[in-house]
Amino acid sequence: MPITTYSSRSFNQAVSSAKKACEEGPVYITDRGKPAHVLLTYEAYKKLTDTRRNIQDSLVYPEAAEIAFEPGGIDIEFRDIDFS
């Protein structure tokens, strides 16, 4: 997957070619030589953001039974409260 880089100025002058380039891979858009933005196809964006983010969603899958998980214990210390 090739990564294409455009300066902000060249991106503004060649939006069509940048859109074509992002079909092959991400397009970095730089401001003053530093990466500032990334242009992706919608499919690539969805692939990156369509991830399970909480444990409840992860436990739905049968493979979750193989995940080693041991929650740590909690020591709760009780103390008397002075209401005076």
UniProtKB/TrEMBL annotation:
Lineage: Bacteria, Pseudomonadati, Pseudomonadota, Gammaproteobacteria, Enterobacterales
Family: Belongs to the phD/YefM antitoxin family.
InterPro entries according to UniProt: Antitoxin_Phd/YefM, YefM-like_sf
Protein's name according to its UniProt entry: Antitoxin
Pfam families: PhdYeFM_antitox (PF02604)
Purpose: Antitoxin component of a type II toxin-antitoxin (TA) system.
Organism whose genome encodes this protein: Candidatus Pantoea multigeneris
